[in-house]
Specification:
mainly alpha; 16 helices; 66% helix
């Protein structure tokens, strides 16, 4: 991280504290890359996707095929988490070719550009805390604190919201980067249209609806919005240590969201692979307790976000009820 970035300047004291909180030998072990563990997750995801897709094809009663499509939608979202691992170079010790191949592979399911996602996400890390320079906060967070607008993020409208946000940020990139993003997006979108067309032609509209349209357009937005809700909406703007949301440990959500609920820990040490974030959480527990951090749950965040209508990027712990 460049020392000229907003987050680097704001978090100097925090980073000194983190060095004391996690011994160098412990951190070295946590940052160790074990590719076989990454690919074990990939095999699990592919197996789940094959099983859930097969179930959705063969089962016609709604209470049988709907659970299958839910699993498919969350698995598709999981590929964005896998892409996130590639962006932070936590898969291989050294393999530029491997990272490029995995970048294409993981970006395709969600229809995004790997180059855009990489630039967008690394800028987010560098400029965390800046309401304008952080592209996710500036372009993707709701501009109005309205329940109806927040609810749209859990619907197919998410695709319009996300791609419009990405397009606005992309205008600030150099021409050669914009050209690469256009090419990658054309390939992924074209590939999805070809898959959907083939499904309709070969299996019919009902099968295409169950195995493609529902997982992508109804389930994926829920997974995306829920995951984002646990990142930077409930924070303490006055303390850089609390610019991400500390989530309560959950084996279920670790399995479903591939440990991405440990987002605060990830921002502290972005070079730790996702399969070691639980161990990192344990190592950081005394630090978080000393800082007075209160772990949250997705249930609580949903209540605060949609029912109590809390504003994004504010302190919901001290907010009046």
């Amino acid at each position: 991280m460049s020392e000229t970035s907003y987050y680097a300047r704001a978090s100097a004291e925090l980073r000194r504290s983190l060095i004391s909180a996690v011994p160098a030998t412990t951190l070295h072990g946590l940052q160790r890359k074990q590719s076989w563990r990454h690919f074990r997750v990939l095999v699990r995801m592919v197996a789940l996707l094959v099983a859930s897709t097969t179930g959705a094809v063969r089962l016609d009663r709604w209470f049988e095929w709907i659970p299958c499509t839910i699993v498919s939608g969350f698995v598709v979202f999981g590929f964005t988490v896998m892409l996130h691992e590639v962006v932070h170079n936590t898969v291989f010790e050294s393999s530029a070719v491997g990272n490029r191949v995995l970048g294409w592979l993981y970006a395709f399911p969600s229809g995004i550009s790997r180059t855009q996602f990489t630039r967008w996400h690394l800028d987010h890390h560098a400029q965390l805390g800046d309401g304008v320079a952080d592209p996710k906060r500036h372009h993707l967070s709701p501009r109005r604190n309205a329940r109806w607008l927040k609810a749209l993020y859990f619907t197919p409208a998410l695709f319009f919201i996300y791609f419009r946000a990405a397009a606005r940020e992309t205008t600030t990139y150099p021409p050669e980067v914009r050209a690469r993003i256009r090419f990658e997006r054309a390939v992924t979108v074209g590939g999805h249209l070809a898959i959907l067309g083939a499904l309709i032609a070969l299996a019919g509209g009902w099968i295409a609806f169950k195995v493609y349209l529902v997982p992508y357009f109804l389930v994926f937005p829920v997974a995306f919005a829920l995951n984002r809700l646990g990142q930077h909406y409930d924070i303490d703007p006055s303390d850089p240590a609390k610019w991400s949301t500390l989530m309560a440990p959950s084996r279920l959500w670790d399995f479903v969201l591939l440990w991405s609920g440990h987002h605060l820990e990830h921002h502290y040490f972005p070079n730790v692979p996702f399969y070691n974030l639980v161990r990192l959480r344990v190592a950081l527990s005394p630090f978080c307790e000393a800082r007075g951090m209160h772990p949250s749950t997705y249930r609580r965040l949903l209540w605060q976000w949609l029912v109590l209508n809390r504003a994004p990027h504010t302190n919901w712990v001290s907010a009046p009820s």
